[in-house]
Amino acid sequence: MMAQIQEDKYNLAPKKFNxxxxxxxxxxxxxxxxxxxxxxxxxxxxxxxxxxxxAFMYSTTVIIISSITMFIASRAAKRLEFGKQRLFLWxxxxxxxxxxxxxxxxxxxxxxxxxYFINPNASQSFIYVFTGMHLIHIFAGLLLIIxxxxxxxxxxxxxxxxxxxxxxxxxxxxxxxIWIYLYVFxxxxxx
Amino acid sequence: xxxxxxHDHGVVHHEExxxxxxxxxxxxxxxxxxxxxxxxxxxxxxxxxAVIAMTLxxxxxxxxxxxxKAFPLLETLLGRFAPGGRLDPNFYLSLxxxxxxxMVFFVLTAGLSGTFSNLLIPLQVGARDMASPFMNMLxxxxxxxxxxxxxxxxxxxxxxxxxxxxxxxxxSALPKAMPGSEMGMTLWLASMICFVASSLMxxxxxxxxxxxxxxxxxxxxxxPLSIWAFFLTAVLGxxxxxxxxxxxxxxxxxxxxGTSFYLSDIVLNGKVMPFEGGSPILFEHLFWFLGHPEVYIxxxxxxGISSEIMSVNSRKPIFGYHAMVxxxxxITVLSFIxxxxxxxxxGMNPFLxxxxxxxxxxxxxxxxxxxxxxxxxxxxxxIRFKPAMLFAIGMVSFFISGGLxxxxxxNAALDINLHDTxxxxxxxxxxxxxxxxxxxxxxxxxxxxxxFGRLMDEKLxxxxxxxxxxxxxxxxxxxxxxxxxxxxxxxxxxxxFESMKQWLSVNxxxxxxxxxxALAQVAFLYNFITSIFWGKKTTQNPWQxxxxxxxxxxxxxxxxxxxxxxxxxxxxxxxxxPGAEQDYILxxxxxxxxMSSNLPHDFEDNPVGLEEHTKWVNTHSNQEVK
Lengths: 191, 626
What we know:
The complex is a heterodimer.
Chain A lengths: L1 H8 L3 H32 L10 H24 L3 H31 L9 H32 L4 H31 L3
Helix pairs in contact in A: 2-5, 2-6, 3-4, 3-6, 4-5, 5-6
Chain B lengths: L24 H6 L4 H31 L6 H7 L10 H37 L7 H20 L30 H30 L12 H32 L10 E2 L2 E2 L7 H35 L6 H14 L15 H13 L1 H15 L8 H23 L4 H5 L3 H31 L1 E2 L2 H27 L19 H31 L1 E2 L69 H19 L1
Antiparallel strand pairs in B: 1-2, 3-4
């Protein structure tokens, strides 16, 4: 009986499925925020009324590249090339941190432009909400990547290594896509 | 897939299955990762919260019945909240707010789904535990933390949140708006965030377990209706709670950072506030996008539980199994496009109001399908009036009588008159309050043996049922008339309004009915607690039910089944099948063992089996001819 319970513990498919459902919940969260934006701007005829700082374009490039490095790391893990896996995980981590920094830099530019979070025009506050809530997800993604890296140095069984890789991969690609969605959404609503 | 050829269903018992892990008190009873223990934790916490919420309701009922009377005892009990023995008006508002919050979220969401999804999903689909037992444990502890934070707001100086359970801004967004909007509101928000975290972790697990961990043979159309209901409830929660989080996040920014998402043109205590441009309607949209699915999160598990119990105790297959599933799916889908009916009088475009009215009224269709199917299940059944059965029938009764008034409230034009009156209070207390509570109690009576290995006392159960059933109707039915007369909800007293004074006698009557129903719960609590320790020991399958949970041993071992997980061969509702030896056939009984009761449609996707069946029927009818 215990052997069967142990067997269940190594049945990782349902746990991976949990991650997919979590992604749905996260997606609903951002969908709610952007819908809130639409309701807000529609009702009061407020709009963002600025051109977004270029920094967000740089950060978009960075996070797309990080998705590619994440993919390469995943592929390397499947092919048992652990050195390459670690290298590209480190790269992804670095790009993720860089993205984080650029987003904060983007905020500082917004502030210089006079676009504040505490703002009678809440559509401008929404820029901070979108990016801020997304950064919380980025932070979670970075923690997942660090966890996967740490595991890859600890020589855990390949099944678990791959599982960690897939979990952080799914999540990282998701936060990437969410950012692209938010960025495009903001671009379309600039004026 | 059911085939005649399968004979290997016999469960192999491994007698050498020793417990290799050593449970300490802490891992067994506190930080348990076993779904059955977590279910019990949810149930007992839920019952505790229900008792607290009920006490709160009795307090404000006393105020409504005797608005001019002082009760010195109240001051002794509540101190500054009842100066001179009369409830403080602000505290009255806190009472209705916290009563609503606790009942909707802590009792009927976490207490109901948390208990029965946790207990029954692995047991009825044939899994050893949840997809992630650890997350399941976290789910309970976040819920517990949420309860503690919510209750702690009674101990802060200005009292708990008091802007209503819907926490509409600007009341909730301006700490200076009313006493309850200060620390109490902050704690409410903190508690709610823990609650949503709990609910999401639970929901994610339920969905994943149902989709991934069903035993061999358990295809979706062989799942009991309870599992369908829990599954769709979890889907609703997973999709709608994040929206509440989004709304609450913006509310927190407005409260503590000074943004203007929901606030505009506000003068507070003679001071013009700097907020402009916000819209409280935005909050209502975000809130009710969760809020409406939430009422189905509350009622659907009760529906699933009742379907199961009514079929078992009518000794009949549930009437219209497929229709039941499709109507649950229909309710799930529709529940996302009706939230506007909570906002008909917010200045909504009448055309949009019309759209929401139509979608709302369409929900009556799947609801009616379910109701008729329940009644048809009872029709000419061999009914066993167990306490669980009575509560399940009671659930249907409340769902009908509360649902009928929903048709009035769902109408955008009638809602101009009826909104924010006692008519609304009567409607939702019957259709989701009483109905869901009755579903939950039905579940407790029915699955108590599975949880504790003992039976609850039936006589006390009957007493509990009749007092509660009659009491609930006496409490909520008169409220319809008050509402039609325009008596508004959430008012502290009606003594100052000439037109409402006449309702005082009715309010007194309602209060005494409420006190009677509350006392009836003592019978339940006594029964529940004593039965855990001294109840009659149960047999393995006390209700002669078909579902998988009754094939597990009474002792509730970790991993649920001592040997292999049994294989499933048939749907769960083979009760009183013509030609069968007994009036129930377990889901684990292969069709090959029940040749005399098999019907051609048992072999719809199984031509080999059908051939065998035809051959068997032919030989047997030939013998009869001889």
